[in-house]
Amino acid sequence: MAARAVLVLNAGSSSIKFQTFRIAGRGLDVGLRGQIEGIGTAHPLATMTEAGEKRERKLSSAEGADMRGALVLLAQAIGARAGELDIAAAGHRVVHGGAEYARPLVVDDAVLAKLDKLVPLAPLHQPHNLSAIRAARQALPGVPQVACFDTAFHRGHAQVAELFALPYEMYEAGVRRYGFHGLSYEYVAATLPEAAPEIATGRVVVAHLGSGASLCGIKGGRSIDSTMGFTAVDGLPMGTRTGQLDPGVVLYLMQERRLSAKDIETLLYKKSGLLGISGVSNDMRDLLESKAPRARLAVDYFVFRVARETAALASALGGIDGVVFTAGIGERSVEIRRRVCEGLAWLGVELDAAANERGGPRISRAGSRVSAWVVPTNEELMIARHARELLGL
Length: 393
Ligand code: ADP
Description:
With 393 residues, this protein is α/β, with parallel strands linked by helices.
């Protein structure tokens, strides 16, 4: 008999990643997974991996012309496995749930209409997330579509953590600090009781350091504050995004440099961050290997800002018991973890160099007043858990 499964979809501008999770007792076992990339380009490519075996198929540009085509292919691939996989729900990563949505929900026409209204708040991600939901509704008729929001874990922040000091009607109109990477933080927070029990109920700063990067201050498992704000360009410098920037710079770019809104968007999201400073690469691995002085400067700036903002969140938390590293850089870069921990030595972080080399889970010495940890994130599994729980599967 086919195993019931949850399909998790994470759609970007030109790619869609998917994973299937078989419902096995209380657990969720990852099965078929993969991605379709290059959607809308001349060379779309489908990659599927199962049980360690990877297969690639070049698609015709007609097959991979848009999200609908990609979802139809995906539905066919899953349909071909109907004997083994019975998709009981599809869970979607949706970047913005606005002020209203604080938890996952099943999408219907009314919800889609509300999520459409949030497109201006996340123009680079939300439209693709929503077109994947629409395409999945058509490709998998009758399968409930569950939206899981990157903002949801941060709802419930104190108002001072949500405000900008703009005229108050702006706040009422939704111009506020939402915070993102919430599915990652929620997963890490849920994992701490097992992975790092000493700090699970304490005050923790989680550093999600990937190509997108942010920090979240968590107290007793709940988000208190985060470095990302109204959009996912705020806070830490990232692969190609600026992170925090004096708004006066944007005025200068408009008024003196005569850049259009579109040019400024491209500059802030695509040409800045590690790539902008280094001129070499947006990939931390390249920068750590490079001898170019500006590659080193980009890494220095990244480390400086991670340490600085961690201390700011320690203040928001009223103290700090632990620091947790996660995502691509946080899970894999021994050097970045070492340097960030050195920058936090004054707060009481004492790194255990050998444990850091091993990748943790605990990377601080036994007597360290503030402990440091590596906890791998898994946003897809978090989405699958939400879909399962919401639908009682
Ligand atoms: P995304 O935000 O795209 O999901 P990831 O969390 O997978 O990204 O992180 C991707 C980033 O992780 C890459 O851009 C790369 O800079 C970084 N990375 C991966 N492995 C290493 C490593 N061994 N050392 C340093 N950085 C790494």
